[in-house]
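General statements about sequence and structure are easier to judge against a single worked case. In the encoding step, the backbone of a single protein was reduced to a row of integers, each denoting a local shape. The record that follows shows the chain in one-letter code together with its fold in token form.
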Amino acid sequence: HPFAQFRFCPKCGSSNFVVHNEKSKECRDCGFVYYFNPSSSVVAVILNSKNELLVCRRAKEPAKGTLDLPGGFSDCFETSEESVVREVKEETGLTVTDTKFLFSLPNTYLYSGFLVHTIDMFFRCEVADCTHLHAMDDVDDLIWTAIEDLNPNDFGLLSIRKAISQLKSIL
């Protein structure tokens, strides 16, 4: 259970931090109740004029070398729309001009040995110019792929595999 990762109260540091209910832990010393909620992450669905999907090859763990879609964690004080615009720019160099929410999926992501529970929000993104892109940040390669050629098993992260199956039916 994710609560096992949190042994000390984040408010007072007490080790008397116990399960309060299925969603929270409570400190028996200071009374603080901590609700374990997922981290926000965003994923970009970008199509070119040939109706090909922009796919990334992961440059880092987890799932290094497998396929992915552009995206990443939302920063504090940032909307999900701002997050997806920033992540696309950081990973591809492309400028997003419009976003449309598609769906969300729960996921887990192993970061530095710590299992992060996420809610992955998928956005259809329009970009200013699909031709000037560069693999950057944690992306090793960028590939335009025909929708019918997508194989969910080529994608390393569970939520992305599920999303590819969904996207094949709606794109």
In short: The first strand starts at residue 17 and ends at 21. Residues 48 and 77 are 31 Å apart (CA to CA).
